[in-house]
TrEMBL record:
Documented EC number(s): 2.1.2.2
Domain (Formyl transferase N-terminal) ranges: 3-181
Binding residues for (6R)-10-formyltetrahydrofolate: R64, N106
Protein name: Phosphoribosylglycinamide formyltransferase
Superkingdom to which the source organism belongs: Bacteria
Transport recorded as keyword: no
Length: 194
């Protein structure tokens, strides 16, 4: 099975959706590490309770290179084939990205190439868009760029706030990321458009 490490910064609901799917017996991948830049990230305890090894490497007070060097230690020790960013809120340097070229994926809460960066839902509402969604893509040194491996759409409804829209998109994130991982772990890079 392909060995998967997951980086999170918060509650880790996408990470939990990925772990739940990988717990299915027929899955082509297995989780070997969940790591966070925030030692208090709620997802760390949840992953540990599911028996997945965890690591916390705080970025606080560290220069980016020193943080990444510390983060690399548990990652390299876990020998992942695939590295998944799942609500990981630190920008990674080109040097880090190149180490995992072609095998690091990210989920982003917009229909890329629209709205890279932050506040994606508010920006989609403010633009008058009728659709929003999420994207899983290969990570390149350019933020929220890289070949798209899957996308899922939701409608933007009258009266939506960033919060109501985020909740609707998150439901699709929890379906899309596991579905893309299954394909990716078997070598299928053709985009999944739902
Ligand atoms: C998700 O909506 C994810 O797409 C987004 O953060 C949330 C994390 O939720 N990621 C980004 O904004 C990346 N820049 P989770 O911790 O419950 O998976």
């Amino acid at each position: 099975k392909a060995r998967v490490a997951i980086l999170i910064s918060g509650g880790g609901s996408n990470m939990l959706a990925l772990l739940a799917d990988m717990a299915q017996g027929d899955h082509p991948a297995t989780p070997v590490l969940v790591a966070s830049n925030d030692p208090l990230a709620g997802g760390l305890a949840k992953a540990a309770s599911l028996g997945v090894p965890t690591a916390a490497v705080s970025h606080r007070g560290l220069a980016r290179d020193a943080f990444e060097a510390s983060l690399l230690e548990p990652i390299l020790a876990a020998k992942p084939d695939i590295l998944l960013l799942a609500g990981f809120m630190r920008v990674l340097t080109p040097g880090f990205v190149h180490r995992f070229a072609g095998r690091m994926l990210n989920i982003h809460p917009s229909l890329l190439p629209k709205y890279p960066g932050l506040h994606t839902h508010q920006r989609a509402i403010d633009a008058g868009d009728t659709q929003a969604g999420c994207t899983v893509h290969l990570v390149t040194p350019v933020l929220d760029d890289g070949p798209i491996l899957g996308q899922a759409c939701v409608p933007i409804l009258a009266g939506d706030t960033a919060g109501t829209l985020a909740a609707r998109v998150l439901v699709q994130e929890h379906r899309l990321y596991p579905a893309v991982l299954r394909r990716f772990a078997t070598g299928d890079r053709t985009p999944l458009l739902a």
